[in-house]
Amino acid sequence: MCSTKKLNRLIVRPSRVGGSPAAARLHIGTLVLRAAIGKNGLSNQKREGDGKTPVGTFKLKGGYFRSDRMLRICCTPGLSMLRSKLGWCDHPGSGLYNRPIAVGHRHSHERLWREDHVYDVVFPTSHNEIPRVQGAGSAIFFHLARPDFAGTEGCIAISAADMRRLLPRLGKHVQLVVMR
User: Residue 30 belongs to what domain range?
Assistant: First the structure.
C-alpha cells in the first residue's frame, strides 16, 4: 500500500565532507540521504561537458525503469519501462539537443540502456528545457549512484536502496532543488 504523504520537494546540497566536490546530501524533510553530484561540483552557469551539476530548481520529469532489473513501484507517477533504444541527445548543434532520441541517431547521444546499473531508475529533470539553450547542458538526470558514489557528469544520484524507499512516496509534481 502506498503512503498517503507524498514528497514534492527534494533538496540537494554539497556535503563538504571528505573533500570530494561530488559528495552531497539529499534532504527530504528531516531525512538526509547520501548522494553524488557532478564530479567537478556545482555550477551557476552549466556548460555541456563541464562535469558540474547545475544549481537551481528543476521539475522531475516522467522517469524510466529497467523492468529486467527493477520491479515497478506501483505508486510512482509517470514511471515507464525503459526501452533499449532510448537515448538522450547531447549534441549542442542538433535541433534535438537535450531531448529523447533513438539510439543510433546521427547526432551524439547518451544511451539510457546501460550495462552498469546507474540508469536502472532514471528521471530526466527540467534543466535547460524551456528555453533550451544550445551548449547549456543536457541529460541532467536523477538516477542511481555507483557503488562508490563517484561523481557524475552533472546528474544527481542516490543509492538503489534509497531510490526504492523514495519511489512510492514521490508526488506528481516533484521539485529537485540544487543548492550551494
Answer: 7-178
